[in-house]
Amino acid sequence: MLYHMWVRHHLRPGAFWCLPKGERLLLQAFTLVEIDNLSKPRQDAQQRGPIGRRRVGRG
User: Residue ranges per domain, the chain?
Assistant: First the structure.
């Protein structure tokens, strides 16, 4: 996880460990969500219109 923060967000591990515990926990949670989203294939790509907005069903 620290490798991901370093490569994607340029946050060095030493700087991470200098943060207060609450900020470290928040960054860990955000990073886990980001990694999870990156590993999932985008299933909603077919539902989006040409400008990236979700289409609303009619009926």
Answer: 2-39
Which residue has 């960054």 as its token pair?
27
3-state secondary structure of 56: coil
Percentages helix, strand, coil for the chain (3-state, rounded to 5) are: 65, 5, 35
Q: How far apart are CA 59 and CA 41, in angstroms?
A: 29
Give the pLDDT confidence score for residue 47 in this predicted structure.
Answer: 59
Q: What tens digit of pLDDT does each residue of 7-53 get?
A: 999 999 999 999 999 999 999 999 999 999 988 877 665 555 566 66
How many residues does this entry show for the chain? 59
What is the C-alpha to C-alpha distance for residues 34 and 51, in angstroms, rounded to an integer?
A: 23
